[in-house]
Prior knowledge:
Blueprint lengths: L1 H29 L2 E8 L4 H19 L3 E3 L2 E11 L6 H14 L4 E4 L3 H14 L2 E4 L6 H8 L1 H4 L2 E3 L5 H10 L2 H9 L6 E6 L6 H13 L3 E6 L9 H10 L3 E6 L3 H11 L5 E6 L7 H4 L8 E4 L10 H11 L7 H20 L4 H8 L4 E2 L4 E2 L22 E6 L2 E6 L7 H5 L21 H9 L2
Parallel strand pairs: 1-3, 1-4, 4-5, 5-6, 7-8, 7-9, 9-10
Antiparallel strand pairs: 2-3, 11-14, 12-13, 14-15
Amino acid sequence: xxxxxxxxxxxxxxxxxxxxxxxxxxxxxxxxxxxxxxxxxxxxxxxxxxxxxxxxxxxxxxxxxxxxxxxxxxxxxxxxxxxxxxxxxxxxxxxxxxxxxxxxxxxxxxxxxxxxxxxxxxxxxxxxxxxxxxxxxxxxxxxxxxxxxxxxxxxxxxxxxxxxxxxxxxxxxxxxxxxxxxxxxxxxxxxxxxxxxxxxxxxxxxxxxxxxxxxxxxxxxxxxxxxxxxxxxxxxxxxxxxxxxxxxxxxxxxxxxxxxxxxxxxxxxxxxxxxxxxxxxxxxxxxxxxxxxxxxxxxxxxxxxxxxxxxxxxxxxxxxxxxxxxxxxxxxxxxxxxxxxxxxxxxxxxxxxxxxxxxxxxxxxxxxxxxxxxxxxxxxxxxxxxxxxxxxxxxxxxxxxxxxxxxxxxxxxxxxxxxxxxxxxxxxxxxxxxxxxxxxxxxxxxxxxxx
Length: 451
């Protein structure tokens, strides 16, 4: 009996020591890693490109020795999380909670759907974990930082602009289209707003109605199809009946394919320009059967030399994906990983509060331009600064199966936009390889025939 008791004690001791050994080994290994969660709608291009861009950055950083903190090298390990944010905000929150509390990542990048990101920020704040946003534009994300800095300071928007700057950005990108319409004798272009029925587009609709009239245009109406609409024929027919010369688009979801396809199919006599995430993909031409011809699409960057890193990234990304053009979330993820590396090394620690201070000093030449963040005292702190000396964004146009950069075009933007707060200096910016915007031929024919 005594022998059995001794054996049982020895067995318990052995198990305890073995578990302690394993735990110690795991901790020693984890101490050499920095875990970064990549969260987003991974079944869609927006999340998929986040992951590809992040992997590209991590491979280069790890190959060069990783992130160095006080003389020690850390390898970056990515953890992919599909948050199902297009369909379920609760799913998106659960995905964030799993990354933070179960996977125990050190940092998070990603996020896309506004409604989901606003909720994910609460998990971020509760756990004091840095969250670098890649795809969501609503100003409320940064207004939280302004209202309660200590709680929400861990949020930074790396790619995409908030509505306050982003609205001006998108309206600026309509400038070449408006100029082209005026060249064919349309003195006061009529503009139709076609925008997602989604939270992110609400402020854009309000401000577009103010800015376009200041640019000598008339807004003739507002149409708001669903984020994932499968047909917009009724909206497009109504827009044609309104006498619009141009459609100002805001489509962040799958409906972007449908809109451009039906616009081209119905030969709507209004040029189309505006935010269309699907429209930036190389597969957009095939998806729309080429009916997106002459559609103009904003992007964070294109196959032009915005910085020395832009074209090499573009080439490597398309090579890895078999010809897929990278969208802004891919470039944003690449830039986010690199500027996070710089901030960690500057801080000399993984402590979130200290890395926040280092991130606030960001001045990073990346894929989309020079990335810097608005300061703590700004109306919307911690969003990337947009302008000719920072992240510039571009306008691309589909012509015969290829996308061409048509803005910046070396011309200053409309004075009304500068008066509204958009930065001046665009007359000094034109990227090699860009070309002039071209009105769709059927639009020209239709309106010339109306004279």
